[in-house]
Amino acid sequence: MSIAEVYDITVTRRPLVPPMPPRAPDNMTAFGRMRAMRNSPIETWGARAYQEDIVQGRFFGRASFILNTPDAIRHVLVDNFENYTRTPAGIRVLRPILGEGLLIAEGRAWKHQRRTLAPAFTPRAVTSLVPYMVAAVDETIAKLKAATDGPVDLREVMQRMTLEIAGRTMFSFGMDRHGAALRDFVMEYADKFARPHMLDLLLPLSWPSPQDFRRARFRKRWTAFVGELMAERRAAGKNDNAPPRDLFDLMGAARDPETGQAFTDAQLGDEVATMILAGHETTATALFWALYLLALDPATQEQLAAEVRGVAAVGAPDIERLKFTRAVVEETMRLYPPAFLIARAAGGPDTIAGLPVKKGDLILIAPWLLHRHEKLWRDPNAFVPARFMTETPPDRFAYLPFGVGARVCIGAHFAQVEATLALAKIIGAFRVALADKEPVIPIGVVTTQPNRSPMFAIKPR
């Protein structure tokens, strides 16, 4: 029996092609490209970027390379990854809110953090956190059922739910008292600091820009807030004879396997900030896009609901049996990758796919482009979850929702489990439809965000 027959997939049905941002004209001027970049870098890419293996260009006097071939991407992110570091603009944008945490660190500092954190994110450790996820999702569903019949902003609901999951899995307490303040910090960061300014791109990292001074003031307030969360968690205490009950316990007990070194308090604060922000925001956005796609594609939504009914259980459904649900999550992250762009600067000369690269040259690996590239995917702009249910998975260097190589996202398994469980429970509980017909266009602002938050109509099943 075929996959289509097992999941009742109507293979002859024309697949959904969701709304997309317009492609840039190939003759776009440098000024036009800069103006488009301030809104969304996705709008700076023209047809060539979706068709060619490598697109060469210039960026403020430096050579730039957009890589769309798996072999070239493997070279940069795996074989010679130590030669390619974050760009100064990327560090400027991320450091105010992530500090020197795992996402920012380089060299020995990064290796120490990665080795130390790894035990906290093993599948076994993540399994111990599933009850926190399920409880927060069930409470969200109960609140939605108790609400009025009016339209619902499911993007905001997903942000609140994943923030609650982040708080409980990190600290074992809910975010009722702290959630509003945390969301305010996230919104302030997104509105004021998440887009690079001209001087961020031009100045070396050692030369502060006017925006850097404003970022420093933000960081002072932000680190004080994270310190308050950590102090509250420590005040709750820990039974030394009991196993770790949350990520804070796991991270506090973690030791570098080579040196035995623990995190300093400042380092632990940066890791806490990284895990809460990178975890809750990216998962909330992925769940929003999945719900949006399913609202546009009722047939696929019903296929998912049927699968959920088949694995119904008290508490957490068996995630190993949610194959179609997971495929919907994976296809959602293909069309709307959490990180739409990976930018690296060459630390020294190199050769990529036969092309000479000089120190300082800009290397761009854009999951947005890679996941929609015409040479790598059939119907690249269509929503086809079944493509992730074949016996031949996509090339691991053509599908990068969590990156790849040594710097692959340490929380990838956590995020996949959370998103799959949450989507299964929500679609198992509700039929989801859009309350308006205006298209939602993806934009790139650190993550792949919607240009607006549409209202949804939900109906209990």
List keywords for this structure.
single chain, 11 strands, two-stranded antiparallel sheet, five-stranded mixed sheet, 48% helix, globular, Cyt_P450_CS, Pentalenene oxygenase, 461 residues, Cytochrome p450, alpha+beta
Quick structural summary:
By secondary structure, this protein is of the alpha+beta class. 48% of the residues lie in helices and 10% in strands.
Number of domains: 1
CATH superfamily: Cytochrome P450
Largest sheet: 5 strands, mixed
According to DSSP, the number of beta strands is 11
GO molecular function: heme binding; iron ion binding; monooxygenase activity; oxidoreductase activity, acting on paired donors, with incorporation or reduction of molecular oxygen
Cofactor: heme
EC number: 1.14.15.32
Binding site for heme: 409
